Hints:
single chain, four-stranded antiparallel β-sheet, about 40% strand, 7 helices, Monooxygenase
Amino acid sequence: MEIQLPDLALKQIFSFLDLFGLLQASQVNKHWNRIAESDFLWRSLSLQRWDCSNFTNQHLGTHTWKQFFLHQRRKELRLALAQPHNFIYKVTKNIAYDMELAYLSGNSLTMDEQEKSIICGVSPKQELCAWDVQEVGDAAGNIYTFTLPGLRDVSKVTASQYGIVFLHCSPDKKWIFACGTYRRTLPQVFLTESLLRPSEGSAPLSTSLPHKLCVSACWTPKVKNRLTLMSQSNPEKKTEFVTFDLTTKRTGGQTVIQVHKIASFQLAAHLESPVWMGANDGYTIVFTNGPYLLLFSITGFLLQRFEDHQAAINNFWVDPRYVLTTSKNSVHVYMWEEGGRHPYLRNCYRLENIWHDPTTDDCISSVMCDNASIVLTVTVSEYSMLVMYSLNT
């Protein structure tokens, strides 16, 4: 410590540190503390973790980037560190039958302490029951783009001659994945900008992915432009996972989308064909298998296995922070850990099925969460209900 490095050199070295390394460096001496507190370093950490490139000093107000980062991190941990008795719950009955949840708003990057969740859904009648939504696909193969929050129609694009069953926007909002009801057609990826600003007389920029029989797909939040597909062949029932990277390139004055296959593996024959899947860091895939939750590398190596459900998992939710699994009797909450080469999952807690009526045959049809709430739709014989768990803050 006898040699004091220039501020610029020290700042460059500190830029390679993670959260805990930066906090430790700030405790060495006053000089290191001053550099480690700089907005440049904490803004860089924030950009690595969240999509906050449009977040300005005006949004921060009187707060620093360090305060912003730590505040968002506390919000992420709040749900993971909770206990079942920390939740209050509310049940809303007689919503649209078999409504599918589409959006939950409580992950917004704000400095607000009191955060409320706004829910939206899509009914089987193709009605938008929503406060916030971006893209919606229909049974005629069209993709509609709407503004936020007024739901003003921006564009309508015919993406497929068949109905669209999967429509997923990438975490950075750059890409839209679309897959039709006819599984032997190739799934497509659209450049979002071409949907938001469609050119008259020309088709939106898109490309087909060279993989048929797709039954599910997910983007990886922590690696931009990475997409994993799950396919199942009949009658063999073989399940395969294929991971692609997407890039754009200017060729002859035009932009083209390039697809690069980076990994694939086939699931062992003794494992059931999964229904649900998700991803986190770009190198791992999580999916359900009967009552089990399995974590694999994208090359097919089993990393982790959870056996927390007694019955088959009937619904599933994955985001950059949490994994939720549901069965008829409970909801299990897991959180992604960041230690080691691969992130792994930590089992946080279980929420009991407090809404269950033993006289009816109910089923959880969808589940999702944000930093403030966990929301389920439960389908009963003749109606659906919305079950909301909120942290009692």
